[in-house]
Amino acid sequence: MARSDTPEFVTRAETTPPDDLSGTAFAHLDVRTLVSDARQGSEQVMVGRTVYPGGGGTHEHHLHPDAEEVVIVLSGRGWHRVGDAYYEIGPGDVVFVPANTAHSAGSVGAEDMVILWVLGGVPSLEQAGYQSVPEIPGIPAG
Question: Cα(81)–Cα(102) distance, rounded to whole angstroms?
Answer without folding.
Answer: 8
